From TrEMBL:
Classification via PROSITE patterns: FBOX
Boundaries of every F-box domain copy: 1-45
Species of provenance: Tagetes erecta
NCBIfam families in UniProt: F_box_assoc_1
Domain of life, source organism: Eukaryota
Coiled-coil residue spans: none
Protein name: F-box domain-containing protein
């Protein structure tokens, strides 16, 4: 880039470049490195830079002991894919699961055997940058369960972890007056956890899967009600504003209130509710979209007839930006599944070229980002609000 251009013009050009080019430019000169590494440039780039959407796919293979991560460009080259090198830290964690994906960051959770603690990890998929966070008060016992979610604040580009403890069994709801550490929020900008105390979810609510969309987290949840000496429950959506840190309830249509198989997903920047069921021995998948963020205003987009897919089982794992669902279908009687793209109008199915162990797929859209570039790599955030490096834990 010519040094004869005014600084302001050069900066505007740089804001439009892909992440890999910016990483290379950091080695050209110290002023450029200082600019690209600055928190203001990173935040502005993450908020306003528009670029090609990618699709992250994670899966497990019967031939490989570790999870596999790959990226598919959601353009005319689809489904060509590029594999990620898994950071060493992730290979050190046991029972590794994906918490969520937001603003180009992937959040994972695993158990670190050396310290016998759960650890969350922020991973920038566009660069080899990982940030571990020691998780306090993670409870999995007969009485309580812990739901862990992740999103990046749209206003501040601050990555946050939301940890919710809920009562596992409906029979314990009346006897438990207070849930300890019910909601805790970690912000990377402060490196600390805090506990909101207002407008918390009712203790009768149990949490399932979640999705981050446009500054909000949405959970599929159930509210359990004591009645006539027994219990009844209904489906609902719980939302959490990442900026204001406030919870809200979203009502579902009556036809979805009491179905058994339900999960949330993301179609572009809209909340999607996917319902799987069976009627007259025919398996189906209904895809609903929430309209304009209005509670109880959902439109059914289409129905997928599973029997026409020539498979015994099918699950919607995600969506292309075109709206086509990416579906996991079983392969004969084998314990493996493959990913396919389904056209809801022509009913045509195209393979993605990815197969792995059934029920171990994660599919989510993402954009490249500079987030975490200004963070020290492998710095460990723990519950005492201090930072130490991974070497201190593994030595």
């Amino acid at each position: 880039m010519s040094d004869n251009l005014p600084f302001e013009i050069r900066m505007e050009i740089m804001k439009r470049l892909p992440v890999k080019s910016l990483i290379q430019f950091r080695t050209v000169s110290k002023p450029w490195k200082c600019l690209i590494d600055s928190s203001d440039f990173i935040a502005h780039y993450s908020r306003y830079h528009t670029q090609m959407q990618h699709i992250l796919v994670s899966y497990e293979s019967v031939l490989y002991p570790q999870p596999i991560y790959l990226s598919i460009a959601d353009d005319h080259t689809f489904p060509q894919h590029v594999y990620f090198n898994t950071p060493l830290l992730l290979k050190m964690l046991q029972n590794l699961t994906i918490v969520g994906c937001s603003h180009g960051l992937l959040c994972l959770l695993g158990f670190y055997p050396k310290t016998r603690k759960y650890m969350a990890v922020f991973w920038n998929l566009s660069m080899t940058r990982v940030i571990p966070i020691v998780m306090p008060n993670v409870v999995y016992n007969k009485t309580f369960d812990t739901c862990i979610s992740f999103s990046v604040c749209r206003a501040t580009t601050d990555p946050k972890i939301i940890k919710i403890t809920y009562i596992k069994s409906a029979s314990d709801i009346e006897s438990i007056s207070c849930i300890p550490c019910q909601v805790e929020v970690f912000s990377l900008s402060t490196g600390a956890w805090r506990s909101p105390h207002s407008n918390l979810p009712r203790k009768s609510i149990i949490f399932y899967g979640d999705v981050a969309i446009d500054g909000l987290l949405y959970w599929h949840a159930k509210d359990r009600i004591i009645m006539d000496g027994g219990f009844s429950s209904y489906n609902l959506i719980i939302s959490f504003d990442i900026t204001s840190e406030e919870f809200r309830e979203v009502n579902l249509p009556r036809s979805l209130a009491h179905v058994s198989v339900l999960y949330v997903s993301k179609l572009r920047e809209s909340l999607v509710v996917v319902h799987s069921g069976e009627e007259d021995n025919n398996s189906f998948i209904n895809v609903w979209r929430m309209e304009d963020g209005v509670s109880n205003l959902f439109t059914k987009l289409y129905t997928i007839n599973v029997d026409t897919l020539n498979t015994l089982d099918a699950d919607v794992n995600g969506f292309r930006k075109s709206g086509e669902p990416i579906i996991q279908i079983s392969i004969d009687d084998l314990p493996t599944s493959e990913l396919v793209v389904y056209d809801p109008y022509s009913k045509h199915v195209d393979g993605v070229g990815v197969d792995g162990i059934a029920c171990h797929f994660f599919v989510h859209p993402y954009m490249e980002t500079l987030l975490l570039l200004d963070q020290p790599n492998f710095a460990v955030y723990n519950e005492m609000e201090t930072i130490r490096y991974l070497d201190d834990l593994v030595s």
